[in-house]
Each structure stands twice: as structure tokens, then as C-alpha cells.
């Protein structure tokens, strides 16, 4: 009983502080090229400093409209953090690009860039489409996990984010984050 109350209090405090029960750290960032052409460039992004913040720039070489462009996200988990990755069940199959940004960018990335001068990428909302071409900077971004799900696997999580047009891979990036219990 006592424990239940304590756990409840801890959860309540976290909720009030908008804090998740876990921390997320960037481990690795890798861009890859498309099959025959590359229209999204993430090769100038890196992790810097002790906090391993995300920093640098990325480019979209053309406007990306909802009919022609799709994004898929494959997720892999290594619970022991040893790099032995297993495919997770909640992949995002190829999804029209604007839908993907509205669903996933808005939940997982936008809260981290909306305070201060962290990125010049435009605010994504219901009306954002196409995803505009341009070169965008990211300055020392650390993930704000306030809108992330409560249940996430601990250990390493790898996301392979691939952009497609006409069914062809036109580039993307691989992000590995380390998720640990907050204490
Ligand atoms: C971080 O990224 C910004 C924007 O692209 C760049 O001007 C700056 O030199 C980068 N800092 C480091 C330490 O790489």
C-alpha cells in the first residue's frame, strides 16, 4: 500500500513537471543516399558535446508533396544496449509525407525545436503541405520527450527513416537513441 502511494506520488510529480519516466540520449546519427538520386540530405548533422546534442543542417532539394513522396520508419530495439537489434512491431509503413510529418514530426521532434532559436524549419500544423524545400539548421537539439508515449523500450532504439518518391528510396537517416529510466 505504502509503495503504491509512493509510486503514485512519483508519477504525479513527473506528470506535473512534464517529465517522462525515462531519459533519451542521441547515440548515433547516420545518413544514407538514395538508390539512384538523393533528394534529402542529412549528412551535415552530427552529435556534439557531452550531451550529444543534435547539431548541423539538413536539406530537402525540392518541395515534397503528399501525392509523390512517402516516408517509412523501421524501428529496432536492443534491450541490453549491446547492439543486438531486433525489429519492433510498431513500424510505420510507407506513409504520405505530409501525413507522416503531421503525425510523427509533430509528436516526436517539434516539441524539441519550438523553444528558442533551435531550428528554422517551419512549424508543422494541419495545413502544412507540401514539405518545403530548403536548407535548415538545427542548433544543439536535445529531445524534449513531453509528448512521447509513456511506454517505450529501454536500451538502444534504432529508427531507420527512409524517404521515397515513385517507390524509389531517395535517401534518409538512421538515428540511434539510448533510453534509460530516470532516477
Ligand atoms: C552547429 O550547427 C550550426 C548550424 O548549422 C553551425 O553553425 C555550428 O558551427 C555547429 N556547431 C558545431 C560545434 O559543429
Automatic annotation (TrEMBL):
Keyword entries, A-Z: Signal
Presence of the UniProt keyword Translocase in the record: no
Residues in the signal sequence: 1-18
InterPro entries, sorted: DUF1091
UniProt feature coiled coil, ranges: none
Entry-linked Pfam families: DUF1091 (PF06477)
Domain of life of the native organism: Eukaryota
Protein name as it appears in the record: CheA75a
Species: Drosophila busckii
Organism phylogeny: Eukaryota, Metazoa, Ecdysozoa, Arthropoda, Hexapoda
Amino acid at each position: 500500500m505504502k509503495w503504491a502511494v509512493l509510486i503514485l506520488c512519483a508519477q504525479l510529480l513527473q506528470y506535473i513537471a512534464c517529465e517522462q519516466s525515462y531519459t533519451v540520449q542521441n547515440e548515433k546519427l547516420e545518413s544514407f543516399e538514395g538508390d539512384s538520386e538523393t533528394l534529402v540530405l542529412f549528412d551535415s548533422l552530427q552529435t556534439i558535446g557531452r550531451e550529444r546534442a543534435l547539431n548541423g543542417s539538413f536539406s530537402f532539394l525540392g518541395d515534397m508533396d503528399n501525392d509523390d513522396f512517402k516516408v517509412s520508419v523501421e524501428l529496432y530495439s536492443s534491450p541490453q544496449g549491446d547492439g543486438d537489434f531486433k525489429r519492433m512491431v510498431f513500424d510505420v509503413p510507407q506513409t504520405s509525407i505530409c501525413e507522416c510529418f503531421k503525425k510523427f514530426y509533430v509528436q516526436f521532434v517539434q516539441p524539441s525545436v519550438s523553444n528558442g532559436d533551435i531550428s528554422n524549419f517551419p512549424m508543422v500544423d494541419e495545413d502544412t503541405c507540401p514539405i518545403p524545400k530548403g536548407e535548415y539548421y538545427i542548433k544543439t537539439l536535445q529531445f524534449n520527450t513531453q509528448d512521447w508515449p509513456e511506454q517505450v523500450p529501454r536500451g538502444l532504439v534504432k529508427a531507420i527513416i527512409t524517404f521515397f518518391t515513385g517507390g524509389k528510396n531517395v535517401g534518409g537517416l538512421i538515428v540511434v537513441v539510448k533510453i534509460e529510466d530516470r532516477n
